Amino acid sequence: MVFYFKARPDIGDYSIFMGLDKHENEELIKYGFPEDIWFHVDKMSSAHVYVRLNKGQTIDDISEGLLEDCVQLVKANSIQGKSLYYS
């Protein structure tokens, strides 16, 4: 089951999707939109997090708050990543 979140209201009307295993991640890739931006912990196992931007927006339009929401989800759902930064 792919998880679905809404960004904080003060950030804007954005949908965030997260897969917890390789099967869910493959589904997200398969059915992704061109407006989706992918977040993942580099060189470690982690959830795949996608934010769906509005049509016409690019990665340059991601606000600091939206970026923070996405990276916190990725970090919180990486066993390796969490242990490096919370120990």
What does this molecule look like?
With 87 residues, the protein is α+β, with helices and mostly antiparallel strands. The protein has one domain. The chain contains three helices and four strands. Strands 1-2-4-3 form a four-stranded antiparallel sheet. Belongs to the CCDC25 family.
Strand and helix map with partners:
Elements: E1 3-6, E2 15-19, H1 22-30, E3 36-39, E4 48-52, H2 64-76, H3 79-86
Antiparallel strand pairs: 1-2, 2-4, 3-4
* Low-pLDDT residue spans: none
Total count of domains: 1
Strands of the biggest beta sheet: in what spatial order? 1-2-4-3
Helix content class: 25-40%
Give the termini separation. Answer: 30 Å
Q: Give a short account of the largest sheet.
A: 4 strands, antiparallel
Give me the number of helical elements: 3
Quaternary organisation: single chain
The best one-word shape is globular
Given the helix and strand composition, which structural class is it?
alpha+beta
- Mean model confidence by pLDDT: 86
Question: How many strands appear in the DSSP assignment?
Answer: 4
Organism: Kingdonia uniflora
Family: Belongs to the CCDC25 family.
Domain NFACT RNA-binding: 1-82
Pfam family, one: NFACT-R_1
